[in-house]
Amino acid sequence: MKELEDRIRRDGTIKPGNVLKVDAFLNHQCDVALFDAMGAHWAQLFAGRQIDKILTIEASGIGIACVAARHFGNVPVVFAKKTQSINLDGDQYVSSIYSFTKQREYPVIVAKRFLQAGEHVLLIDDFLAKGNALHGLIDICKHAGVIVEGIGIAIEKGFQEGGSKLRKEGYDVKSLAIVEKMDADTGNIEFATTD
Questions:
Q1: 130 annotated to bind ligand
Q2: Between the CA of residue 66 and those of 44, 45, 118, 142, 154, what are the distances in Å?
Q3: Residue 129 annotated as lining a ligand binding site
Q4: What CDD domains would the database entry show (predicted)?
Q5: What is residue 147's predicted lDDT score, i.e. its pLDDT?
């Protein structure tokens, strides 16, 4: 998606350790018009698929998923929580994931009442690097008996194994921008061709 690639080039910052900082528009300050264009693009890419719910993970995926849901007939958005709280009651699906950016393991939790067996779910997230967060969501989906119709990613780090691994596992991953190379010294970013 050219609009997203252009925005990454203009406002993204490459940090040492293969970190791409896009907090000016994606995961701290949110460009809602860009999110809307992303949602419309995913709706085209997943046209003809039954989508009953969108599942994401807090916090960065929530805004993107909510705006995208408008393009899928205003389906509900469910987000996995990363911490247990008194507001999480009843039976829960729990998985554990390792965060590349936070450098720690944490649980992801979804109340069972929000995922019904047989529902068709679209997973959406802001980044795909090693695929740990998505595998945690997929684990929850398997336990819930829901069907993963596809995975929508804003930015995929194509030089890391997450995307290719998920595709080899049979998941339909649609990334709007795939970073093939990035250089912290020069600030140069190269993108792969996307759908």
A1: yes
A2: 17, 17, 22, 23, 14
A3: yes
A4: PRTases_typeI
A5: 98
